[in-house]
Amino acid sequence: MTPEPTPPSTSSASPGPTSDAAPREQVPNPLSHLLDVLRLERVGDGDGSAADPEHFRGESVHQPTGRVYGGQVLAQAVLAAGRTVPEGRLPHSLHGYFLRPGGLDVPIDFAVERLRDGRSFSARRTHAIQHGKPILSMIASFQEDQGGIEHSSPMPDAPAPEEVPSALDVLGGIDHPIARFWSHHSAFELRHVGGSLYLGPDHAPKDHQMVWMRARGDVGDDQLLHRALMAYACDQVMLEPILRQSGTSWVTPDLSIASLDHAMWWHRDARVDDWLLYVQSASSAQGGRGLGAARVFAQDGTLVASIAQEGMVRLPAL
Fold first, then answer.
1. Beta strand residue intervals within 59-181, DSSP E
2. Catalytic residue among 130, 141, 246, 309
3. How wide is the angle at C-alpha 217 spanned by C-alphas 214 and 223, nearest 5°?
4. 218: buried, middle or exposed (CB in 10 Å: 19+, 13-18, 0-12)?
């Protein structure tokens, strides 16, 4: 079943007409709220087998569409799996499928199977479950810190994040729930090099873009949490190059877009509360689907992660 769209992978919700009015409600600290949501509760004492997995439970961040954001479920699944591996092993890769839309009305249960614990690597399968059915299925691999060959592709030239307009600069004066979500309620600050797709399409369509991204506050030093938060954040932008190439945007009427599957490789330690540059591309779009890819660089130019995601991208005229 194709999952329904989740923000920022959203459908036809439009920021609406511009307004000089600031958001009326008192906005809580969105990063603190997200970190609270990512503190999973252990429920039950399973042995980690397929018949008796280990169980964790988590809540969800509010979304203006009323559906769970896929990046949140992905991050929670990484954290649940990470709670079951030997100390000192961090995730280096994940492969996951979004199976159903998630709702905000009930908690999400995470069932973790211990597939293997070797001398250096551990593998875990995690299912995120609501109403007795999986909404995400993920396998992740964890590794001890080890030496080896060192190579990193160079970061392309990009303006410094301080030179790029933020979502708050673009949307801060618009009095609409979606605009307020992007500009004030998001736990991450996004800065699109060359302009965003919030209010309209790229005037020079292209199959690539660059985005600076950073958490809106200190996250601490837990590297497992930083890697989970990177998975959380990237789902906001992974399919944007497909929209950019097709001359569409987040406000295109009746756009329907949703993550289908997600693969991620963490190469090195990174901090999401420092600026990270997402260098993105879209190699193909066809059959109502599109493939997005990203290389993630620390501000010093070090490649810290690589990501790929296929998504459903549907327009009423296509």
1. 89-98, 108-117, 121-130, 133-144
2. 309
3. 75
4. exposed
Write down the catalytic residue from 235, 245, 246, 280: 235
Q: Quick check: is 259 catalytic?
A: yes
User: What residues pair up with 297 in beta bridges, in sequence order?
Assistant: 277, 303
Tokens 């993630």 belong to 296
pLDDT value, residue 318: 60
Per residue, the 3-state secondary structure of 166-235, as one string, reads: CHHHHHCCCCCHHHHHHHHHCCEEEEEECCCCCCCCCCCCCCEEEEEEEECCCCCCCHHHHHHHHHHHHC
Check residue 308 and report its DSSP letter. E
pLDDT for residue 1: 32
The pair of three-digit structure tokens given for residue 105, joined into one six-digit string: 């009305």
What is the rounded distance in angstroms from the CA atom of residue 208 to the CA atom of residue 205?
Answer: 9
Residues 6+ apart with CB under 8 A from 204: none
Which of the residues in the chain have pLDDT under 50? 1-27
Nearest Cα residue to 291 out of 304, 299, 282 = 282
Nearest to 67 by CA among 110, 100, 95: 100
List 186, 249, 259, 280, catalytic entry: 259
Q: Tell me the pLDDT tens digit for each residue of 95-111.
A: 999 999 999 999 999 99
Q: From edge to edge, which strands make up the β-sheet containing 303-314?
A: 41-42, 54-58, 108-117, 121-130, 133-144, 89-98, 256-266, 303-314, 289-298, 276-286, 208-215, 188-193
pLDDT given at position 274: 98
**C-alpha distance across the termini of the chain, in Å:** 20
Q: Annotated catalytic, 309? A: yes
**Model pTM?**
0.89
Catalytic residue at 235?
Answer: yes
